[in-house]
Design goal:
2 domains; 13 helices; alpha+beta; 9-stranded mixed β-sheet
């Protein structure tokens, strides 16, 4: 079976596209989703966060929630808000945020290649979140949240995408956050064949974001393969998962910063003295962002500091240990602040770089947190190196922007 293939996408009719598209299901909590969808009956949040249509404080993992999502999906189909294309196509999905633009291929990717690590991973998943996505896929009989994949850019794909996006799109809308979402349909048989063949010659794809969605898709495939037994052919829609695949030279990773609740019993002066033992530290008269890997910025007690790691303390031979997020833990969070488990320690929190340095200052100045750390963004090349080595990145290592919208194209498993 090919690495990727076209599919008959489920899409909002163009005049309803802006009403339908919504932030990814895991970006908003239930209350934020409820407010965002208020007065918007066709928002995809009614499908991806259906607890918003049930009483407040409803457990989002209740059976009734998944049933409500399926009911809302069926309603949007019946009303003609969502329609499935008649034939399998590829789609091109453009995201524009300020001066940044990236264009990805909407396709379904082979679960077997995910299982064999040809589609490479770099994060651990949580069983409870996997279970949630499995139940959602099963109840909807659809994949509605695309997995964000990336690949080493290819000249022939670049040229084809440039040609195809010179044509008029079927959707071009600006979301509430100012991000422009644009969709083109690739319906020419020769172009479809070229895309399929070119990608099938690639060594691998990489998961950028969506490890729980891809893991859940694999579990659904295994369950349905077992249920179908002799009838299983490998061609069924459930053998593939919904993806948007971006070239590595367009993918944008922002910083993913850390805030810590206390100084582990140290005074500010003691904390800074301990910090100076591992870092070159210099105060700054203004808020500063790191300008390169190996540089950090620290905010404590109303003061910003620039921190640099001496080169001899960076284990360049290890793709995980050499990451800035790892170095901050090994040289600062663990030995000085006593934080060794970033997944479970409630003293540490994470702030996406899209929120800016002002958010770090706010969290500290409010008294909620004692110290904030601004990091240099993890590079996509570093992510790929970790995935190629079949290793795992630390929690919250990457923050991808702009975010894909839920609802622009979905994948029905009844195809």
């Amino acid at each position: 079976m090919p690495l990727i293939r076209p599919f008959a996408g489920l899409r909002p009719v163009p005049e309803y596209a802006l009403d339908v598209i919504a932030p990814p299901y895991d970006v908003l909590n239930s209350e934020e989703a409820r407010l965002r969808a208020e007065g918007r009956p066709w928002s995809f949040l009614h499908i991806s966060k259906p607890e918003i249509d049930l009483p407040p404080n409803t457990d989002p993992y209740q059976k009734a929630v998944y049933a409500k999502g399926a009911e809302n999906l069926q309603k949007m189909l019946t009303k003609g808000i969502l329609k499935q294309d008649a034939q399998p196509y590829y789609y091109l999905y453009g995201l524009t945020m300020g001066n940044h633009q990236q264009i990805g291929l909407v396709a379904v990717a082979n679960v077997a290649d995910y299982n064999s690590n040809r589609i490479r991973k770099h994060e651990l998943t949580r069983p409870d979140k996997e279970d949630d996505r499995v139940r959602q896929i099963e109840k909807l009989n659809a994949q509605t949240g695309p997995v964000f994949l990336t690949y080493k850019h290819h000249p022939s794909i670049d040229e084809l995408v440039k040609t195809l996006t010179a044509q008029s799109p079927v959707v071009n809308v600006t979301a509430d956050d100012g991000v422009v979402h644009t969709l083109w349909i690739v319906d020419d048989a020769a172009n479809i064949d070229t895309i399929t063949t070119t990608f099938d010659c690639m060594d691998c794809l990489y998961i950028a974001d969506g490890h729980h969605r891809s893991a859940a898709a694999s579990r659904v495939t295994e369950k349905r393969r077992t249920t179908n037994q002799e009838r299983h052919t490998g061609e069924e829609a459930y053998n593939y998962f919904l993806s948007v695949i971006f070239p590595d030279n367009q993918t944008q990773i922002l910083d993913y910063n850390r805030v810590v609740r206390d100084l582990n019993g140290l005074s500010v002066s003691e904390f800074l003295e301990r910090t100076a033992q591992s870092f070159d530290i210099n105060p700054s008269s203004h808020a500063v962002k790191p300008q390169r890997s190996g540089e950090f910025c620290l905010f404590v007690n109303g003061q910003w500091y620039q921190l640099n790691i001496p080169k001899d303390k960076i284990p360049t031979h290890d793709p995980v240990a050499s990451l800035d997020v790892s170095l901050l833990t090994s040289l600062m969070l663990a030995p000085i602040l006593g934080i060794t488990d970033l997944r479970r320690d409630k003293r540490v929190d994470f702030v996406g770089g899209i929120r800016g340095l002002a958010e770090l200052e706010k969290r500290v100045n409010s008294g909620e947190m004692a110290v904030a750390f601004a990091l240099y963004p993890t590079s996509l090349q570093a992510l790929m190196a970790v995935a190629d080595a079949e290793q795992i990145m630390p929690p919250k290592s990457t923050w991808f922007e702009p975010k894909l919208a839920d609802g622009l194209v979905s994948h029905l498993l009844s195809q």
